[in-house]
TrEMBL record:
This is Uncharacterized protein. Residues 13-237 have a biased composition (Low complexity). Residues 1-237 are annotated as: Disordered. It comes from the Eukaryota. It comes from Petrolisthes manimaculis.
């Protein structure tokens, strides 16, 4: 019994455990280049012009809700002699949401040369970019139960999760040229552009190019020619009437005297 107890005491010696847990979580949400160029040239040469220019630009960029649950549960139960355990857990989580280049060029040229023009230009541009809800659950459960002698265990766990949502190039060019040369024109130009970009690794690129050219040329040429000719014949007619009346009166008086 003495020798047996001595062997049991020595049975839990010389355990070499090399547990290398290398977890590299690289989260790079980088290089968002937003170029918003709003060039509005309003040239008003007129009387009584009501111009309502409403430019509402809502750029909502949400790269949210990255839930990373890395659970490493390693239960090493070694009841042996001379066990060499090399557990290499290399987990590389590279999340790169990069190079979102948004070029929004709004060029609005309103040239109004007129009287009594009511121009309502409503430009509503809603760019909603949602790269959301990336749920990464990496569960590493390693149960190594070694009940033996001289066991060499090499467990290499290499997990490479590379999530690349890259190179979303959105070029929205809105060029609106409204040239109004007229009288009493009511122009209601409502431009509603809704670009909803939802990337759960989905790339939807919508390029809406709206060119509205309104050229109204009203040329009114009215020529009124009035010719008035006055002939003077009343003088002669009056003289004839007077002569006839004189002869009638003289004749009437002569008859009365006779």
């Amino acid at each position: 019994m003495g020798d047996g107890e001595e062997r049991l005491r020595n049975s839990c010696h010389n355990n070499n455990h090399n547990n290398n847990h290398n977890t590299n979580n690289n989260h790079n949400t980088t290089t968002n280049n937003h170029n918003n160029n709003h060039n509005t040239n309003n040239n008003h040469n007129t009387n009584n012009n009501n111009h309502n220019n409403n430019h509402n630009t809502n750029n909502n960029h949400n790269t949210t809700n990255n839930n990373h649950n890395n659970n490493h549960n390693t239960n090493n139960n070694h009841n042996t002699t001379n066990n060499n355990h090399n557990n290499n857990h290399n987990t590389n989580n590279n999340h790169n949401t990069t190079n979102n280049n948004h070029n929004n060029n709004h060029n609005t040229n309103n040239n109004h040369n007129t009287n009594n023009n009511n121009h309502n230009n409503n430009h509503n541009t809603n760019n909603n970019h949602n790269t959301t809800n990336n749920n990464h659950n990496n569960n590493h459960n390693t149960n190594n139960n070694h009940n033996t002698t001289n066991n060499n265990h090499n467990n290499n766990h290499n997990t490479n999760n590379n999530h690349n949502t890259t190179n979303n190039n959105h070029n929205n060019n809105h060029n609106t040229n409204n040239n109004h040369n007229t009288n009493n024109n009511n122009h209601n130009n409502n431009h509603n552009t809704n670009n909803n970009h939802n990337t759960n690794n989905n790339h939807n690129t919508t390029n809406n190019n709206h060119n509205n050219n309104h050229n109204t040329n009203n040329n009114h040429n009215t020529t009124t020619t009035t010719t008035t000719t006055n002939n003077n014949n009343n003088k002669n007619n009056n003289n004839i009437t007077t002569t006839l009346l004189s002869l009638f009166v003289q004749t009437f008086i002569g008859v009365r005297k006779a």
